[in-house]
Amino acid sequence: MTNLLRKLLFSLFISPSQVLGADESPGLPMVINTWGGAFTVATDAAYLSLLEAETSALDAVEIGCATCEEAQCDGTVGYGGSPDENCETTLDAMIMDGTTMKSGAVAALRRVKNAIGVARYVLEYTTHTLLAGDLATQFAIQNGFVEESLTTTESAARCEVWKQAGCQPNYRINVLPNATESCGPYVPIPLNATSPTYPFLIAPGAKTASHDTISLIAISASGTMAAGTSTNGASGKVPGRVGDGPITGSGSYVDGEVGGCGATGDGDVMMRFLPCYQAVESLRRGMTPSEAAEDAVRRMVRKYPGVASGIVVVDNQGRHGGAGSGWNFTYAYRGGNMEETVVVTVLPVEEDKSAEL
Questions:
Q1: Parallel, antiparallel, or unpaired: how do β-strands 320-325 and 309-315 relate?
Q2: Which of 50, 93, 127, 341 is the most buried (most CB within 10 A)?
Q3: GO MF annotations for this entry (predicted)?
């Protein structure tokens, strides 16, 4: 199959709402992020903020992610979503400055709603990159953030239904009682050559909704860039689990000299590949945003064919593209003089690959 025909076939899988082709720029300022639907409130909030001269790209990223946190986008960002085995919601967030390359992050943050805000405080008021757990909560409270429960009536009820269904699905393996049939407490069993291996147990039976994350990249009118990520992780996770969201280079990454990237999906797998760092470096080597996104996804799929992933990539001129695996991945963008956010849908790379002649 020629490259021209492959691109033509791929274009058939782009949402009719897309007004510009992949790897084209709508102009600056620009905001782009993982997912459409409920997540477009973040795209709009961040983009509109950039129309004010005093708003930096870093500000826009914080505004966009905080908007999703407050709106509880799709139940997978912010409070009241993705309860762990103990029915508690914890938050992961990261924000990165594309000029200084400095990032700030929080992981397994408890009892504070504005995770992206705390992450920015880590960036601006410490020389650290990542704070975690209760001590991240302590840092937040010391800096004026409010301590409050992240559990809602809905999230508590959802967790109880999960428990009544035998805690299915969950993320335990090689334990007794059998984690595919019942709740714990669990104890580990000795491993041997016949023990199940993780590649066949990536979030067994998990719904894709449990993986949705907002990763957002902003480019100001002057061309400065920033990126950030916010999520409440995977439903039914082992308490204390941290995914790819707060990991610089995995959940998101930005270098204002080149471009930025945002990721969503099975964070336990994705963080092993640092896909956003990989994608930005691919841009640096001359790939288009679409090529860089697909290359990052295919690197993961070769090792973990069942991985659910989504990568959105944008260069420092606003040219953009995306790729995913395991689901139909969407991303949203708004830039230049666009009057509304546009959502782009791309089929998983497995299907694109199978279409080859």
A1: antiparallel
A2: 93
A3: N4-(beta-N-acetylglucosaminyl)-L-asparaginase activity; peptidase activity
CA–CA gap between residue 230 and residue 72 (Å, rounded): 11
Integer Cα distance of 356 and 341 in angstroms: 32
Give 203's pLDDT tier (boundaries 50, 70, 90): very low
Cα separation of 317 and 29, whole Å?
9
Please name which of 82, 86, 91 lies closest in space to residue 235, comparing C-alpha atoms.
82
DSSP 8-state class, residue 287: -
Terminal-to-terminal C-alpha distance of the chain: 6
| pTM for the structure as a whole | 0.90
Q: Tell me the three state secondary structure of residue 121.
A: helix
State yes or no: 264 annotated in a binding site: yes
Spatial contact of 182 and 167, defined as CB atoms under 8 Å apart: yes
Closest CA to 94 of 275, 256, 227: 227
Active site (catalytic) residues:
213
* Bridge partners of residue 262, in order along the sequence: 252, 312
Enter the DSSP assignment of 248: B
Other residues' Cβ atoms within 10 Å of the Cβ of residue 140: 26
Residue 217: helix, strand or coil by DSSP? Answer: strand
Task: Return the amino acid letter for 221.
Answer: A
Query: Is a pLDDT exceeding 50 seen at residue 337?
Result: yes
Tokens standing for 55?
């708003």
Q: Which H helix or E strand runs over 267?
A: helix 267-270
3-state secondary structure 170-202: CCCCCEECCCCCCCCCCEECCCCCCCCCHHHCC
* Contact (CB, 8 A) for 335 and 225: no
- Is-cis flag, bond preceding 239, omega within 30? no
Name the nearest CA neighbour of 34 among 289, 220, 216.
216
Distance of alpha carbon 316 from alpha carbon 218, whole angstroms: 10
259-278 per-position pLDDT tens digit = 999 999 999 999 999 999 99
- Residue 266, marked binder: yes
Residue 254 among known ligand-binding residues: no
Can you list the domains of the chain with their CATH numbers? 3-149+206-354 (3.60.20.30)
Is 80 within any annotated ligand binding site?
A: no
Sign of the CA dihedral with 8 first, then 10, 11, and 13 last: positive
